[in-house]
Amino acid sequence: MTEPDEPADALRPLLFSIAYRMLGTVSDAEDIVQETFLRYQRALADGTRIESTKAYLSAVTTRLAIDHLRSARVRRESYVGQWLPEPLLTDDGKEDPAAHAEQADSLSMAFLLVLERLNPVERAVFLLHDVFGYGYDEVAGIVGKSEANSRQLASRARRHLEESRRRFDASRQEQQELAEKFFAAVADGDVDRLVETLAADVVVYGDGGGKAPQWMVPIAGVDKVSRLFAAVGRQMRELGIRLQPREVNGQPGALVLDSDGRITNVFVLDVAEGAVQTVRSVINPDKLHHLGPVADVRALMRELRSRPE
Fold first, then answer.
1. 172-306 is classed in which CATH architecture?
2. How far apart are the C-alpha atoms of 207 and 149, rounded to whole Å?
3. Which of 157, 164, 109, 154 is CA-nearest to residue 133?
4. What are the boundaries of each domain within the chain?
5. pTM for the complete prediction?
6. Domain 9-162 carries which CATH code?
7. pLDDT at residue 97, as a whole number
8. What are the residue boundaries of the RNA polymerase sigma-70 region domain, all occurrences included (predicted)?
């Protein structure tokens, strides 16, 4: 058995980061990292010479993610409603501020959704080089392309991304302050205060996956969105549901918890130019179990409807 050049377990966070950005799903990313380590252990047992543990594990993770993404695209074509990435909490305090600023944009749901426009290999090349800092020679070896071809793929991916990639110009503190105002207005059901926090062309997206009640089409415009969230706030008060502000995918957000502390859904905000530009709500229970116990939202809605006027 060959001896590894560096501790493999120390690379788990990097491998998860690659897989999650490739797929936008926490559970699948965790499965891929687990499979990567199984293959690594088998390779060591077989006497395979591994010159760089990082290079080997990165290559296996990326190739597994590419294969998985190709099959996932077929499943997403039949997905009920709007597909959103699985929310990832990023305020655990493990990242230093500089690392957070560098990585938050590439973790945002807005960015992950823009990545959906790229084919799997383009996505891998762009992420490995532009986000994780791998050299083109390393990238070429991982994706099985020439170095020149890898450069072309990265350049093409950048052009696609720049056409629709939103930059978040607000500082982390400014984002958090505006999010606090927004969520306080939601909790109070205050339309006027909601209007003060929202961009004129604000858009709301919901992901229920057909497994929980959710908005099936985007809701746009400050008037509609402010009234929508005022109504959401009233329902929350009637059911004893509360908002717990958290940072989600590097952006301001909140866990929505029922009276027993179970998660009903997760809100994520895009903040730019001093206003909330986009609100995304993930309520599909399959996308929330990694965050904790999940509430039965349909049962909560039945309870609400059964109450006397």
1. Roll (3.10)
2. 36
3. 154
4. 9-162, 172-306
5. 0.90
6. 1.20.140.160
7. 47
8. 10-73
